[in-house]
Amino acid sequence: MAENKRTCLYDKHVALGALMSPFGGFDMPIQYEGITEEHNAVRNACGVFDVSHMGEVNISGADAEKYVNHIFTNDITNAPDGKIFYGMMLNEHGGVVDDLLVYKRGENNFLLVINASNIDKDVNWIRSHASGYDVEINHLSDELGELAIQGPESEKVMTEVLGINCADLTFYTFREEMLNGKHILVSRTGYTGEDGFEIYAEHDVIRKLWDELMESGRAVPCGLGCRDTLRFEVGLPLYGDELSDEITPIEAGLSIFVKLDKPEFIGRDVVMQQKADEPKRKLVGLELTDRAIPRHGYEVLDADGNVIGHVTTGYRGISVDKSIAMALIDARYAAKDTEVSVRIRKKTFPAHVTAKKFYKKSYKK
Amino acid sequence: MSNIYYSQTHEYVRVDGNIGYVGITDYAQHALGNIVYVDMPEVDDDVTAGEEFGAVESVKAASDLISPVSGAVVEINEHLIDNPRLVNENAMENWIIKVELSDKSELDELLDEAAYKALCESESAH
Prior knowledge:
The structure holds 2 protein chains of 2 kinds. By secondary structure, chain A is α+β, with helices and mostly antiparallel strands. Chain A has helices at residues 10-15, 35-44, 64-71, 119-128, 154-160, 203-216, 224-233, 268-277, and strands at residues 19-23, 26-31, 47-50, 55-60, 84-90, 96-106, 109-114, 136-139, 144-150, 174-179, 182-187, 196-202, 220-222, 281-288, 299-301, 307-316, 323-330, 339-344, 347-354. Chain A folds into 3 domains: 10-52 and 142-233, 2-Layer Sandwich (Gyrase A, domain 2); 55-139, 2-Layer Sandwich (Alpha-Beta Plaits), CATH 3.30.70.1400; 280-354, Elongation Factor Tu (Ef-tu), domain 3 (Beta Barrel), CATH 2.40.30. Chain A is built from 8 helices and 19 strands. Chain A has a 6-stranded mixed beta sheet, with helices on both faces. The N and C termini of chain A lie far apart (45 Å). By secondary structure, chain B is of the alpha+beta class. Chain B has one domain: CATH 2.40.50.100. Helices cover 21% and strands 36% of the residues of chain B. Chain B has helices at 26-32, 79-82, 86-89, 113-124, and strands spanning 4-6, 11-16, 19-24, 35-39, 46-47, 52-58, 62-66, 71-76, 97-101. The longest helix of chain B has 12 residues, at 113-124. Classes of the chains: A alpha+beta, B alpha+beta. The interface between A and B is medium-sized, with 17 and 15 residues.
């Protein structure tokens, strides 16, 4: 088995006593003090995550905009510099190669931020579809680290602790600047449903910013455990759970990030057809009446006990004190309030279909 | 002579006559972190030594409960239904099920306190 990679903050996580576990090919901190405490810190104050496992690819050159539009579902045409788009790369069957952020740095200059678990697959995909396009593809994952500072107090923490003034950054925009002589990229983005920022920089800068945050005591170190509970409660998908090579964005309820009015992109025809025909499966929310907890992979059943789908993510919610799940099920059962059940070990528990958003996002727009 | 016996999978049984109080150890509750749900069998269900009889769940994961003894469940700890964190607060006091032991010779297969302590130390060393 191949050794897991380490981020530039690995030694600091170990020194803090973090529980380390493999994720996406990296040894990552799952929790420090505890998932519940860290989750609540982000909902109520400020938490910081090492997300240096995320991958980065820069695409530039005369055809960069044309090429990114060819592999990406959202429409980046004529976007202003400093704007960020969420969307997906699709395969020819309409399945999701990855979901990602595209940062427009300048004319024909884009930074793509991709999932750690898909770095090799994505870089290969991006390189192999570029023939005939005048583009330069630079894979930067090994050079850049990333911090996510999240929670209602994060703007203050950014300004007062790190000296990064970001009051003027609006949601899904970014700025590149020099901080103490070093280049950083700062965006108002995140994966928690709270206001927050992400900083991309070289390893020595990331290490220094992390130390400043720890010394200040104003940002709680947070692991991937609560990153998952936070993103789940606000209905954000995770690749590998809600998205895969076999699941289309229409099934996952992400059509607003798929611009079918664009003349062309990989997977467009399949997705267009699926949208016209109505998908056979849909991603829904489920709420259980019991305390039992639905977990990834558990079966969802109809009234007669037939399997109609499976749970993609489930928890005893932390901000929402209920047993809740996202599940990919037969579209005939996807209407709100439909009664279904979930098999949990030997028993089945009643559940009903809800919206995927269990907790209200608090973005600062 | 102590009346508490331990399994390799971190359950204990405290024996009082023919009755065994089965729960998870302090080491197990600590390793799991905040417990948010305890899945218990029903009264009159039979449990079998070495087999699953329920689960304890933390935020992150479900962990099977393996019965250290065989017998009929005579009571479940109903306090855990609404307050599963009692297991975190005092794992030895907050047993999960009460079993009428069908074969007390099974206790010979379990670990005593010293052997269990050694097991926890060897696991912590990894």
